[in-house]
Amino acid sequence: MVQDTTMADAGLLEELMDRAWPAPDREELAGWVMRAAGGVTQRANSVWPRVAVADTAALSAATLWYRSRRLPLIFQVFDSPRSAELDALLDAGRFTRQSETLIMTRAAEGILPGVVPGVEISAAPSEEWLSLWWSVDGRGGDAEREIVRGILAGCPSLYALVRADDGVPAAVGRLALPPGAAAWGGLYCMATGREHRRQGFARKILDALLAAGAAGGAGSFWLMVTAGNAPAQALYAGAGFAEQGRYLYRQAPLQRVLSGC
Fold first, then answer.
1. Domains of the chain and any CATH numbers
2. Mean pLDDT in the chain?
C-alpha cells in the first residue's frame, strides 16, 4: 500500500531527519537533543527540541554543553504551534533567525521502480561522489570532510552519480533510508558541479534515486530545500513534491570577549 504523505506526521518527519543525518556527539536533556559534529553543518550542530517547551533550566544546560565544545548554541526550530513557547524564550534571549528551510514530501505512487540509464548507484559514497558534493556544499578542510563521511555512514543510504559526456562527475545525490522508518526515504546532498548546471543532471539524479527507493520498497519520500532556492523548489515541485512544513535555525548572540589591552 502506498503511504499518503499529504498529512505526514510532523514528529515523524523530525525523527526521520535526525536519523538520516546523525551527529556523532549527542545527548538528550529534558526532551531536547543536543547534537555536535565539530561544527560541520548546522543540522548536526544544533539542538533538536524533540519536546518544544520553554525550559530555562534546559537552556542553561544547553548553553554549557555547546560552550564546552567551543560551538555556538543553535536550535533547529520547526514551524509549528507547539514551538510558540520555545520561540518566545529564544526571542527573549535575542536568538537570530537563519536558513529558513522547506520540508517537501511525496508518495511513491507513479514512480517507476528500476534503473535510470547513465546514473551510477552505490551503497557507499565513492571518492568522486564525496569530492563533487564537498566542492559544492563543503565547508572546511580534510578533517571536516572526514566528519561528514562519518555522518553519511551513520544511516543506510543509496548514492547516485551521473557523468558528463567527457566522463567527469556532473551531479550527485543521496537517498537516506533510516532503519525502522516505515518505508520512508530522504533526499540529501543534491549537488551539481558549477559547469554542469541547467543541463538536466540534477533531475536525472532525482529520478534515479526515487526509482531506486521505490524499487527497494520506499512508499514515501522527503527532502529539504532552503526557502530562498527557487530553482531547486521548482525542480522538486516538478517531480511531484509538495511543501509539508518548515523550520529554521535560531542562534544565540555571540558573546563579546573583553580585550586585555
1. 10-102+247-251 (no CATH), 105-245 (3.40.630.30)
2. 92
